[in-house]
Known about the structure:
Elements: E1 2-3, E2 13-16, E3 18-28, E4 31-40, E5 45-48, E6 54-63, E7 67-70, E8 86-90, E9 97-100, E10 105-113, H1 115-122, H2 128-131, E11 135-139, H3 141-155, H4 162-185, H5 194-206, H6 214-221, H7 225-236, H8 240-258, H9 263-269, H10 275-286, H11 290-298
Amino acid sequence: MGIVSDLPNVPFREAHGINRVDVLTREWNGVTVHYHEKYQGPGRVWGDLYSKSSCLAVQLEVHGGYSDPRFKLDQPTPRTRYDTGFAVWVPAHHRVWGFSETAYFVREIRFTFDSARLSDLMEDEFDPALARDPLLLLYDSRVTQCANLLSGACIEPLDGDRLYGESLTTALFAAFFRARRKKNSTGVGSGLASWQLRRSTEYMQAHLTENISLAEIAKITKLSQSQFARAFRDSTGLPPYRYILRSRIQRAERMLATTSRSIAEIAANVGFADQSHFTKAFRRFSGATPKRWRQDRQG
């Protein structure tokens, strides 16, 4: 793999806290594809995706925390999902930051292109109005699937894979625009209104360690409990209790990575009744016990 500093055309500038970025580059259909593996140091890490060309980036994998795409470096993006697999759309000459606080390894794939070329490639499926606006977080399984297959084609290229790469690239952008049109057209839909989602998640974050009830949260949104639970899941992909549990685990991950507190202390601090319950929940979400997760992060 090549190192990012040797590839000035890679749209990654003003990097801070990154020890090494390994890059593999291919090109299909006039779209340049950069597969990245980023090894990050402890503490805050950021980089700027600004470029003279438009860019679509898909995060494939992250260890040790999560990455947050932002319009402003000091302002976290409101979000209700923290898993990988999201896409970020950055039009030419727009500034979008990638930020993380505890993640030590990130795999992603970026596609850079000229919008006119993409319009010719996709014809009626290309939406110039949507292409003009940046988008920080889009989750779509088809986009993620195509991105993973293309990353494999970057890592282990095969002879005569031109048609394979071109087909996947076209499918990825078609899936992205379909998902984005759907997102725009169903903004009011069956999910929560933006103010309801904001107030409910703010309340849950503020009372994360408390034994809050569904009735309390639903009251904030002026919905019945059943209406709220269904709309919250439609908006976030998670039922309320799962959102709270995941948020507690994320807070615990930050404390494990940045403090020397005991696991029992952290369990109590993030709202778990006992260390055993905390360990089971942590392993279910993070894939390792808190002790092992901390050892891996420190290593």
